[in-house]
């Protein structure tokens, strides 16, 4: 946390549609309040085991995504809607993308959040299979990370590290009384409070304004 007086804890999952809805809010907070606020990512493992998409689940996701698009204005690409969601054999598995974010953070802490954004956009707009390490490696390079260093960090984080991270994220979620993903928690001087954000979908400026009002004064 070092020079920052406050931390925004973001309990999320890369494959959670409502976290994609919250992406503009978190991005706006990072962009406009980054000097006063540290962002800490906590991947919660929505799909803790590989799950093959079946027609019922696909239909449920499509309906949820329509609502997300309506509320947040976030785009869902044709390659995702007509490709990834429509194809037999699509697997949803949160651990590889969470591992990729941890690997990005290990190589360059400033790239952790851009890596998460790249994964979300690749999944929801480009219809890429972000459960595949090769795809995640390509996204890392697109994000400006060194490919070899990322691959090494990914391999290191792949086993116990990612499991421990997900377990810690779930513990935090329970401790703060969060209602699932996404949960945003503001920590100031060791005191944590859950930030209501659902009314701010599609209104990042309003979210930033309310968040800024809770931050310590700049001296």
UniProtKB/TrEMBL annotation:
Family annotation (InterPro entries): DSBA-like_thioredoxin_dom, Thioredoxin-like_sf
DSBA-like thioredoxin domain segment(s): 13-193
SUPFAM superfamilies: Thioredoxin-like
Name assigned to this protein: DsbA family protein
Species, as recorded: Dyella koreensis
